[in-house]
Amino acid sequence: MVALHQLRELPGLGWLLLLGFGALGLPWRPARPLAAFCLGVLWAAWSAQSALDQRLPAALEGKDLMVEAEILSSELMDAGYTRLLLRAVRLEGPIDWRPRLIRLGWYGSPPPLVAGERWRLQVRLKQPNGLMNPGGFDYERWLFSQGIDAVGYVRQAETARRLDSGWSLNRVRDRVAQQLATHLHGAAAQGVIVALAVGERRWISEGQWEALRVTGTAHL
Q1: CB 101 within 8 A of CB 87
Q2: pTM, entire model
Q3: What CA–CA distance (Å, rounded) separates 16 from 2?
Q4: φ and ψ at 74, to 5 degrees?
Q5: Strand pairing partners for 152?
Q6: How far apart are CA 175 and CA 186, in angstroms?
Q7: Are 36 and 26 in contact (CB under 8 A)?
Q8: Long-range contacts of 176-185 (CB under 8 A, 24+ apart)
Q9: Within a 10 A sphere around the Cβ of 206, how many other Cβ atoms?
Q10: 65-107 pLDDT, tens digit each
C-alpha cells in the first residue's frame, strides 16, 4: 500500500493484470512474499479507484441540486459563514449519485444547526480540488483522506427545511462538546481541549490556529 502511494497515478489495466497474476502465487510458500505484495497493491488500487469513482460527477458540477442529509458537524468560521459536514441520505439530480460526505458553506445567519439533524437543502457543488504548491497544504489530498466527495455551498437558504432531529452518535458528540465548552468558558485552552477531546474545532480562535500552523502542529 505504501508503494502504491508513491506513484503519481494509479496503475493501468496492464499493470493490474500483471499484479493479479502475481497474487495467484499466494498458495505456494516460496512465492508468498511477492504474491502478498501484489495483493496489497491490488487492494490499495481498488480502494483508491472506488473512492475516486464516488466523487461528484462532472455532469452535476455547478448545478443546483436538492439534497437530504444528516449534519455531522457545524463550525462557525466567522459572523457570516458556517461550515457544515454532511452525510447525504438522498440527492435529487439528473443522474444517480450517492456521495459519502459533503462539505458545505452556509453564508449568512443560518438557523440553529445541531449534529444529528436531518435537513433538506438546495446546494451547488463542485469536485473536491485544491492547489498543490510544494511544501504547502494539499487540500485535495486531505479531502480525499476524509472521504469528502464534493464541496460547495447552500443556495436559497430560505428554502432550507429541517426534516427531523432523531438520535445519533454525532448528536451525543455535539452535546459533549457543548458541555465541555461551557465548563471551560473563559479558559485560554478551551478550544484546544474540546478539539483534542471530541474533534470539535469551533472554539479554537484564529490566533490559536495561526500558532498551530506556524509550529506545524495543526494536524493534532
Answers
A1: yes
A2: 0.69
A3: 16
A4: -130, 140
A5: 104, 125
A6: 19
A7: yes
A8: 177/202
A9: 9
A10: 899 998 888 877 777 888 899 998 888 877 778 888 999 999 9
Q: DSSP 3-state assignment of 101?
A: strand
CA 107 distance to own-chain centroid: 20
- Could you give the angle at the alpha carbon of 104 between the alpha carbons of 154 and 84, nearest 5°? 110
Please report where in the chains the cell 504547502 appears, as a residue: 136
| Other Cβ atoms closer than 10 A to 101 | 19
How many C-alpha atoms does 128 have within 13 Å on its Cβ side? 25
Residue 108 near residue 157, CB atoms below 8 Å: yes
Decide if pLDDT at 170 tops 80: no
Region of residue 106 (phi > 0: left; psi between -120 and 50: alpha; otherwise: beta)? beta
Please tell me the distance from the alpha carbon of residue 71 to that of residue 103, in angstroms, as a whole number.
10
CA distance 132 to 140: 8
Residue 72: CB atoms within 10 Å? 20
